[in-house]
Amino acid sequence: QYGMNSIYQEDLGGEFQEKSEIYTYESMIRKVLTHLIEKFPIKSLELFLKNLNFSINFFLKNKDKDNIDDHSLIWRRNFNEKPISKTFRSVLIDTVIEIILFVGNNVKERFPYAILELQKYNNLTFIRLESFAYNNFPELSTDFINKIELKTEHFKTIDENYELFHVFASFFDQFPNKTQNFYLKYITKGVKKQKKALRKSRWNKNLPKLKKEDIDRYIKHDQIRKLKPIRKYIKQDFLNKLGINFTEIEKINLFEKKGVVFGTRSPLSETTIENFTMEELIAYLLIYDSEKSFDFDKIGLGRQLKNIVPKKPNEFISMLNDTLNQPKLHKYISFIIGGLNTALKENQNLDLKSLFEIFKTILSEDFIINTEPLFFKEDT
Q1: What is the DSSP letter of 257?
Q2: What's the start-to-end Cα distance of the chain, in Å?
Q3: Residue 123: left (phi > 0), alpha (psi -120 to 50), or beta?
Q4: Residue in 159, 357, 137, 361 with CA at minimum distance from that of residue 266
Q5: In a structure prediction context, what are the per-residue pLDDT tens digits for the chain, which is 380 residues long?
Q6: Model pTM above 0.90
Q7: DSSP string, 77-105
């Protein structure tokens, strides 16, 4: 009950001056968790999954309601991955992971029941937790993988999702034929829907829509990312139909280092972003939607952008100027400015006149930053 009350306080916003709320909640869990999972491992998992599901749904339901949810505060609290930066959701996810590891290592016969609890919820966070269980305990997971039927919403984010990515990489041939065929069809047929969306996309009303070659290049890159986890299961004939070769797939490095990807990991590596043209990058940012994925994906992408900006600052100045006219991209403004700040410290030759005009626009009374801007520093 304490946890539910605290979740209400967190997800309805506020300045969070009473920072002890999250500490108290986590310390209470730590005091009882060992005894709980030793005596009631599955019941404990059921309890914390219910709390996590409530927290996620309540956050999504209320995040835009009357603008009372301070997103920038939420993102900042999670940025450094320190105790003061934790939210109730991150505490609950850590707790669920701990229970999964306990069950898989100590009460293997209860593992099927743990998976059934995870499968009760239709949210990508729970798919990631389920995939985490499969990756850590493959010998206990075969019977479940043989029956998994995933949906398009899961495929859309597989190149952002370390856990599901590696389940596909290790066990794709063990998935039901229906799921395998559906995924391959998604890679080929889903392109049409993406092309349609990109043709309609106009990231700057003063510029023409994306050119056909830019759209085709982006689509091909997206297909390569989706093919990466199943590269050892696909045949050359299939790739020939897409105009893709194995070398292109091997070059893609979606994950720079191994680890559980919850929170602030970027869906794209620095190399991938560097290889994008500005038009391709804008197109990606416009259609990238982490609404159904874990809440903190966007900040990882923003941080990656911040690292790339000093490598081609004037291109990003031009992009930033156009970004002001595209509310969907406002959430990345502070990250780009952070990268430009780094470039200034490095005494790079920047287009200061254009940059000054951009700052004048941002600081003007008429300019409004829309759609839950993310601030990577409290003083940005």
Answers
A1: S
A2: 37
A3: beta
A4: 159
A5: 334 344 434 433 333 334 456 667 777 888 888 888 999 999 999 999 998 888 877 766 655 443 333 333 333 333 333 433 456 777 788 889 899 999 999 999 999 999 999 988 877 778 888 888 988 898 898 888 888 777 666 776 666 566 777 888 888 898 888 889 888 888 888 766 776 666 665 544 555 566 777 777 778 887 888 888 898 999 899 999 888 989 888 877 665 433 333 334 566 777 888 888 888 888 878 776 544 333 344 667 787 888 899 999 999 998 888 788 877 787 788 888 889 989 988 888 889 899 888 888 888 767 776 544 444 443 33
A6: no
A7: HHHS-SGGG--HHHHHHHHHHHHHHHHHH
Given a contact cutoff of 8 angstroms between Cβ atoms, the answer to whether 334 and 376 are in contact is yes
Judge contact between 302 and 336, C-beta under 8 A.
no
Domain spans, the chain: 2-121
Handedness of CA 26, 31, 37, 43 (dihedral sign): negative
